Structures are given as structure tokens and as C-alpha cells.
């Protein structure tokens, strides 16, 4: 089992991988649950993911209160993470991002579903959380625990949830699996958009549902290489 220091180094690496692949920009973030204190989690201070270093990683309780801020500025949307960990004891990693491919599926009512086997971990049903329904007109940021808990409720037992006009949240049982899912959620969005455009040109009504039905995920068949026993430090999609 990896030590805490090794996990935190992997968290730094995961920030860099997600930034390199364009899954997070200057505003996305990834956290991990404390392996020995399930009532706490680790998240960087407010910094662009590609610039995150080990010294930027801070510890928080599930109310998103920092244990020691070290004089650093904090991410505003910490409740996305704290509420997910609070609601889901099985979740060990949470990612929030604004990857561009997913945005249209959060605002058009167009359902996102996995269309290839490598994207199966996004789940057969990807729900959309609309903050306006409960909280009215806002800046769409998840600033409070009430908002975070409402988002976690919409996430349910799944691994992904789109956020209307904002981005998405990805949650998983370990970090590499969660990074993998975030990468392939974005890829699925692009591929599905291309497939649907081709279907419309060919006049194949209902082709979207046919494609979506090909990749319904089944337990034990998600990410053939998604083992937690892979060598640490490699969170690239080819090794997750």
C-alpha cells in the first residue's frame, strides 16, 4: 500500500496530467481522501493545476475547513469535494473540471452516454445538475456546503455528473481510476458529437440510441487495466 507521502506526490502528478491533456484549465481541481482519516481530504491551494507542487497540498475536513492554510489562498469550490466525500464513503478521489466537450451536454438536454468501451466508466446514465432549480440565480459556482450536498445528491451512486452551464464532477474509488474517467468523459463527449453529426447527415434516426446501447458498463468490465496495483507515479491513460 502506498504511503501518504507517495499518494500526495501522485496527487501532484495527477494535477499535471489533467492539465497536460486539457481536462483542467487554470480553474479545475482534483482531491483525494485521507487514507487514514476518512473525515479529511487533500486538495491544492488555489493554483493552476499545471503549477501545483507538493507544498501546495493542504488538508481539509469534510466541512471544507482547512487544517492549516499555510498563508495560502483556497479554492472557492471546495464544497464539491467535501460534500462528495461526506455522501459517499466509497469515494476516494474527486475531480472538478470545465473540459469543453462536456459543456453542450449540460445545457441542451442532449443525453451523454458511453459510445465506446474505453468510455464505459462514465456510467450508462450521466445526470445533469442544474443549480438554478434549488438556488435560483447564482454565478454557478459551488460556494456552500448546501450547494455541494445538492450536487452530491444528483451524482448519486455514479461516477460522473454534469453541471449545467459550468462543467462536471467526477468521483471514483481510487485516484487513477478517477483520472481515467475524467479523461474519457471528455473524449466520449467529442466522439458522441461526431457520431451524432454523421448520423444526422446520413438520416439515420435513432442511431444515437443504438450507439449508446453498445457500451452499457457491467461490473468487473470497467477499465480492463484499471488496477490499483500498478506502479505508482504513472497516471497516464495508457497505464490506469
Task: Compile the SSE list and pairings.
Layout: H1 4-20, E1 29-33, E2 40-44, E3 57-61, H2 78-87, E4 93-97, H3 103-107, E5 128-129, H4 132-135, H5 145-155, E6 160-163, E7 167-172, H6 175-202, H7 207-212
Parallel strand pairs: 5-6
Antiparallel strand pairs: 1-2, 1-4, 2-3, 4-7, 6-7
Percent helix: 25-40%
**Shape annotation:** globular
Query: What do we call the CATH topology?
Result: L-fuculose-1-phosphate Aldolase
Q: β content, as a range?
A: 5-15%
Question: Can you give the mean pLDDT?
Answer: 89
**Helix tally?**
7
Strand order of the largest sheet: 3-2-1-4-7-6-5
Question: How is this structure best described in words?
Answer:
This protein is an alpha+beta fold and 240 residues long. The chain is built from seven helices and seven strands. Strand 1 (29-33) and strand 2 (40-44) form a beta hairpin. It has a seven-stranded mixed beta sheet with strand order 3-2-1-4-7-6-5, with helices on both faces. The chain has one domain: L-fuculose-1-phosphate Aldolase (3-Layer(aba) Sandwich), CATH 3.40.225.10.
Amino acid at each position: 500500500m502506498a504511503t501518504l507521502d507517495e499518494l500526495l506526490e501522485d496527487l501532484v502528478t495527477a494535477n499535471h496530467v489533467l492539465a497536460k491533456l486539457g481536462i483542467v484549465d487554470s480553474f479545475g481541481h482534483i482531491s483525494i481522501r485521507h487514507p487514514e482519516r476518512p473525515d479529511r481530504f487533500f486538495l491544492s491551494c488555489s493554483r493552476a493545476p499545471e503549477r501545483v507542487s507538493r507544498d501546495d497540498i493542504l488538508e481539509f475536513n469534510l466541512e471544507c475547513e482547512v487544517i492549516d492554510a499555510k498563508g495560502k489562498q483556497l479554492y472557492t469550490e471546495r464544497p464539491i469535494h467535501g460534500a462528495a466525500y461526506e455522501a459517499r464513503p466509497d469515494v476516494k478521489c474527486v475531480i472538478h473540471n470545465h473540459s469543453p466537450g462536456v459543456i453542450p451536454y449540460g445545457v441542451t438536454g442532449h443525453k451523454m452516454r458511453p459510445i465506446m468501451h474505453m468510455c464505459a466508466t462514465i456510467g450508462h446514465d450521466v445526470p445533469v445538475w442544474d443549480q438554478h432549480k434549488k438556488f435560483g440565480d447564482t454565478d454557478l459556482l459551488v460556494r456552500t456546503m448546501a450547494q455541494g450536498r445538492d450536487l452530491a445528491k444528483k451524482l448519486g451512486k455514479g461516477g460522473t455528473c454534469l453541471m449545467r452551464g459550468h462543467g462536471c464532477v467526477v468521483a471514483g474509488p481510487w485516484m487513477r481510476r478517477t483520472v481515467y474517467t475524467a479523461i474519457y468523459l471528455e473524449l466520449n463527449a467529442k466522439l458522441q458529437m461526431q457520431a451524432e453529426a454523421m448520423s444526422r447527415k446520413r438520416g439515420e434516426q435513432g442511431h444515437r440510441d443504438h450507439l449508446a446501447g453498445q457500451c452499457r458498463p457491467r461490473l468487473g468490465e470497467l477499465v480492463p487495466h484499471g488496477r490499483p496495483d500498478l506502479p505508482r507515479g504513472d497516471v497516464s491513460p495508457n497505464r490506469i
